[in-house]
Amino acid sequence: MGLHFKETMSGFVTTPEGERQFAFTVNADSAAWTNFGGWAPMTLTGTATLEGVVEDAEILSGSYLEIGVPLHRYLRYQVNFVDDLGSVYHYFGQKTVRYLSFPKTMTTLEGRLFQDGEELGPGTLHFSLLDLPGFLASMRPWATR
Length: 145
Prior knowledge:
By secondary structure, the protein is mainly beta. The protein has two helices and ten strands; from the N terminus they run βββββββαββαβ. The longest helix is centred in the last third of the chain and has 7 residues.
C-alpha cells in the first residue's frame, strides 16, 4: 500500500524577462508507506502553468517529490514540463522544515527554474492554507502494483 495526495503550489519565478506567475498542481503517489524519511521519491503527475509561456502543461515522467521528514527535515520537488515549442522546463525546489516555524516552512517552496538546461532564475511558491481541506481530503492509501 502506498499513499496518494493532491497538492497545488503557486507563486512567482524571476526570469530574464521579469517576474512571472508559476504554479503546478500535482498528484503525488508513493510506492509504499515505507518510502518516507527520504528513502524513496513519490511520483508526480499533473499540470504546470508558467505565465506567458504555457498553461496546464502536462507534468513529465521523472517528476518527483522526496519527503525527508522527520529524519532529514526537507521536502524536495522536481517538476518537469514542456512548452508548446518543445522547450523542456525543470523546477527544482525544496521546503526546509523548521519545527518551530512548521506552518510557514511546510507551505513555502524555494527553488530554481531551468529551460533546456539553462537557469532562468529563482522562484518562491506557496501552498495556500485555503487549499488545506482539499489537500487533506485527497490523502488516501492506494494499492500499488
